[in-house]
């Protein structure tokens, strides 16, 4: 079954690679989020859904939806020459993961005792203490559409933080289709279980996102994607701004989940609904503030916690002018 | 199939001889219908002669036997692309490009071929764009008068000139697109009055839908796209439209149009996100570098009781007007807590001057240096003992547990990054050791302990040069790397810090 799944997966990716420019207009084409995590292929080149996010108030542009992982963190690993051995290793690893999952199910959610999970009020979701923590992230830039921004991710000082740095260039690619460009993004990979099943995060008991970052004064955008089983959902995300202060001190950014606004295919929607936290797929940071030049962002860790003082459920009302159907 | 560029399409439609050349070069791989397409301009017909069989002119006029399937497909694609462009552009933030919007012009003009990407015949490399670009229509209105400068007045004059020579405002869509492109050169991209003036160029009440069929379909789609482009540029520069804009849009497009919808959305989302930045940067940054440095330092130092000291002003220009002043400005900031910490710092351990680090204030980048010490190893950390005072009447120190009860734990299960204390921050015009040495000397006046503490300069980037040491200063051992300036400076610090 694993082989069948892998075959299907493999051909799926192949068919996508064969038609690089799926449609002239990106709005009607469907984009699939598929991160291949198998050891056979390098985790690269899957058309995904990193859309360019402009940080101007209320404005999002969404025509750049192809994503290529420009993962420059791990050096080139020579693939195994023996194909059969690689397949066998893969099968063993997946069965090992399956066994872990079954065993963990008896212990509690995600392998931790139920009492601990229920009483938890602050959880560290992503930390950057080693190279393997960087492998959970993909960095992209507008090079995928022909722009000239560069972005790199590496471990920071003393292996205590991750450093996302690069150069932003808003020179539009001269392909007649995009009139604006200039974005860089860092997106987390979708967590995978046994046989590459997609798993999701469950943050329903928390209500605030906590980030410890050190930036250079540039405004970033935090995007959260929900479980992307449906095609339409793979273009939807919830976003909010993260303003860095700059300076040598660490900055704590706390964003309640009620502040995230909904957008589809990179555009803010009129009908807003709150972010539901039970099936979170990935989180991402985007820089697209139309200012050319070098940038950096140092991240210590990313966590979620339950702020008892925050009682707001959702920050944005729906307006009857824009959405008369919701108010009938 | 070759996709003719917009200008080539225009050249064809206006009947230049060059257009004939392009028409002939178009790829004849399209399966030819028996009805050969008629060629538009008479000059083209003359140039080409009898239409050849298999001449696949992309999207020419339909022949006598009706629309061939190829043309139908191309027209459908073009129109649907235009439709998609409208629908997509109608929502907030519409980054449609201008090429597809102007391409489908109806059945009687050449339609740009669908951008399928690959051309079947390899083309020679095209000449560089600057040479081959024909002037855009109405460009002559923006030509500067001799001795004139590109400022708001000349822009307004050019916009007003358009209406004067052209009562029927022919080509107003092209003119508005051109004006939008030129706004940045004239420095008026954040001027609401200029945007309203540009919207005023549209003829009023012509584009209002009058019956139900016009209301169903997008009435005057190109003009609506143009209105959307104006609003979109306003949005991207953060200009809030006002009542005059609303009235103009009502007059031009009507209440149910896409520009009006975008206006409503802008009003809603702009007001929601107006104060979303917890560290706002003023829109008009000071041009004086000392003021800019002060603003930046106040921003990065959260302690409000910190004092900004200007150690050196940039020297004024000589009478001969030399370009680079010999002295750069040096502005520093230090809070009382940092002063006390520096006074307590033991002279056995050095302090480091690190930098330069970049700080962005909107679109200006300034660089700062910090004076910091390394983290003390745990065994050397002193616990401050406050001398105990006791009083008969009431306790001076209460050891109450203010924390929450046992089941409330809001701490994250991770060790935070610990770094050494920062003693002072400065921003200087130059990033070399001489300038920073002056800063250290200035700091020594308020921190006499600094004279005994060895100072090591860990400057990165190519400008960090090492000079000979003076009393109390030591040279750093590792040389700065030869990295590009885009590389993060902290990586150097990491490499040097771990040595």
UniProtKB/TrEMBL annotation, chain A:
Any one of the GO CC terms: mitochondrion
Cellular location(s): Mitochondrion
Example of a GO MF term: unfolded protein binding
Alphabetical list of InterPro entries matching this protein: Galactose-bd-like_sf, NADH-UbQ_OxRdtase-assoc_prot30, NDUFAF1
Record-annotated membrane-spanning stretches: none
Keywords for this protein: Chaperone, Mitochondrion, Ubiquinone
Disordered: region residues: 45-65
Residue span, NADH:ubiquinone oxidoreductase intermediate-associated protein domain: 126-299
Pfam families reported in the protein's UniProt record: CIA30
UniProt key word Chaperone: yes
Gene Ontology biological process terms, A to Z: mitochondrial electron transport, NADH to ubiquinone; mitochondrial respiratory chain complex I assembly
Superkingdom of the source species: Eukaryota
The protein's role, per its UniProt record: As part of the MCIA complex, involved in the assembly of the mitochondrial complex I.
Similarity remark: Belongs to the CIA30 family.
Subunit comment: Part of the mitochondrial complex I assembly/MCIA complex that comprises at least the core subunits TMEM126B, NDUFAF1, ECSIT and ACAD9 and complement subunits such as COA1 and TMEM186. Interacts with ECSIT. Interacts with ACAD9. At early stages of complex I assembly, it is found in intermediate subcomplexes that contain different subunits including NDUFB6, NDUFA6, NDUFA9, NDUFS3, NDUFS7, ND1, ND2 and ND3. Interacts with TMEM70 and TMEM242.
This protein's name: Complex I intermediate-associated protein 30, mitochondrial
Taxonomic lineage from the root: Eukaryota, Metazoa, Chordata, Craniata, Vertebrata
